[in-house]
Specification:
Rossmann fold; 3-stranded mixed beta sheet; 202 residues; single chain; alpha/beta; 5-stranded mixed beta sheet
Length: 202
């Protein structure tokens, strides 16, 4: 009787182990993504181009995207959170860093840093960004709506403000294509901001 009991116990244990191993084996691996700065653009410096020390930030994101999962839009009122496709770093930090890198390509800015700046050089201008929407549909488009302003850091006065409504087509139906399209919308935002800063620096 006891031998039969132990045999049954071992059998149940082996079956349970197979179920656990099978469940782990069937779980797809997580995939991680980062935004990327502009590529292949070389700024042509003008003879009378003015330079300035610029700080980028703070950058504020809506709560619905301030998470590790990549958010896509199913309809105007419905969102989807990817279970296995995630940001490799906080989206707020990635957005600010890529914006800073893009502006360093588009402008004569020395230094250009993230807010709050801790360097020895006094900052001339600061770019503050409030992201209203950053998402998209797989296989379709990435969308970015942002309200931003340029401030004179010396007296904290607002010199320029604008709301940019941008989109970029996704060159594929997967998350990598969507993230690439989102990087393109940030590049377009960077150009808007750079043009405004160039006007101020003249």
């Amino acid at each position: 009787m006891m031998d039969r009991f132990y045999c049954r116990l071992i059998f149940v244990g082996v079956i349970s182990l197979w179920v656990i191993i099978g469940g782990c084996a069937s779980t797809p691996p997580s995939r991680f993504y980062v935004l990327s700065p502009m590529q292949g653009e070389n700024r042509q410096a003008e003879a009378d181009e003015a330079c300035a020390a610029i700080s980028v930030g703070p950058v504020e994101l809506p709560d619905y995207v301030d998470r590790s999962q990549i958010v896509t839009r199913i309809s105007p009122n419905k969102l989807s959170l990817a279970e296995f496709d995630q940001w490799a770093e906080p989206l707020k930090e990635s957005f600010a860093r890529v914006l800073m890198e893009n502006l360093s390509i588009l402008l004569c800015a020395d230094p250009i840093s993230l807010y709050p700046s801790r360097g020895p050089t006094a900052i001339d201008y600061r770019v503050e960004v409030e992201v209203i929407r950053i998402d998209g549909k797989l296989g379709e488009r990435a969308s970015l709506i942002a309200r931003w302003m340029i401030l004179d850091e010396k007296d904290n006065t607002v010199l320029f403000t604008k709301k940019s409504n941008l989109s970029s087509p996704a060159q594929g139906g997967d998350y990598e294509a969507l993230v690439s399209a989102q990087s393109q919308t940030i590049a377009a935002l960077s150009r808007d901001i750079a043009e405004a800063l160039k006007t101020i620096l003249k």
